[in-house]
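ESCALATION

Customer reports they have been waiting on this structure for their group meeting. Please prioritize. Original submission:
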Amino acid sequence: MTSLEALEIKLIDRSTDALDQSIEALDAKEYHSAITLYNTVLKAFEALKKSTVTADPVYKLLPEKIEQLQNEHENAVKLFEDSSWEELNEVLTKSVRTKFQDLRYYLRYRDYHEKLGMNIYSKYFENFRKHHYLETCHADSLSEVRNYWEEHYYKNVDTVLPTAFYSLTGNYEPRIIPQEQMRFEIIPFLNDKNQLGMYKDKNMYDRLIPSDRTANTILKRVNGQYFDGRNIFLTRSEAANRIMRQQMDLIVKASQSDDGKGIAKIVYRSGQYLLGKNKVNLKNIESIWGENYLIQTVIQQHEIMSAPHPHSLNTLRMVTLRWKGEIHHLLTYSRFGKDKSIQDNGGKGGISAGVTEEGFFKNFAIDKEANFYKKHPTTGYSFEENNVQVPNYEEFKLFVTELHEYILHHNFITWDIAVSPQGYPVFLEMNFWGANWLQQMVTEKPIFGELTEEILSAVSETKKYEKDS
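Update from on-call: job pushed to the front of the queue and completed.
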């Protein structure tokens, strides 16, 4: 640690000590003392800001963190001026102190983590650090991880994910694929990005995937034109009448988005449809979803899927790979909504729990921010205590590998599959990328398993050829 870094940490400690005393004074309703002590905090913070002006510009997160703390101070000062003592106490305790602690950790460990091969500027570093996944780092083990990638991929990679994986599993696994390599190098090698459009369009699913185990589509809008579920043309008036004749809750989906985006439920009550609390008709649907969407009946789900969060259709995200002519099932994890949202998607606030090769749920879940759960945050459902198994799980694996046979341009696919009340798979959606870090963390295994070295070698050789040509 440099002398400047030691000074910065000393200033943070001085600020934190004065802050704690200010909070104690507020608790005792000694408001004048609290103000005096907080002025000490502000003076130390001003000195800290001056010291960080000369910081190495490579530490580009530092100005951002200083600015965040500055904003918290400005908010606190306003509360002092307004004598909002109760709110002030909460802000000082939960916001200002937390920001100081975060800044101290960053200053203390930034060089240490960088030397271990971690990209300290990525959102994954921030999320994992914030949730204490990076507190145990073994230099020798991470050196083995870096050596593995240099040998099989001829490249150094970010060691954040292998470190977080070790924190969760107790195992340093060099085959864990970092998100950056997966998203920008491996998936473009496996899938034809020029052929995404057709496969992403949900209104084409019935043409691409000949299966009767799918959601029941009652209406499609394609390029502004209406069709029924059998692709027979409808006038706009016929489309409006078709919706009203259903007299049941329906799901509206944007047809050209993926990963659960643009989905809502319209509820049938007393002869009319409601979106939230507002009455909705075809004109309203058109204004929200535009010229490309579809409307489906609500899928009923198996009790093991509804139990953690009954308000959403909870699904299995199943991943398949075509490699050397054979289609492999790589892994599965379950996805559950929260906060009574109808969507299970992690990007919309949902949580994910791994599924073992035998179809049992893992005893924990993780969300997109890397928060760890033993119980569902909305319902209190215990993943640890409920040792449940997906019924007919081998049939689910067979189902997605057979579906993949119809998709020729893409070798890596993630499938969203519902579990029917009878325990059978129901196809919902396919995607061609995903939160690779989350997939490996919740299932506690490298995504490509025994195929990892073959795939890394093939991708690196292709990249080398492209560079040399």
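Sent to customer with the following note: Residues 275 and 408 are 38 Å apart (CA to CA).
Escalation resolved.
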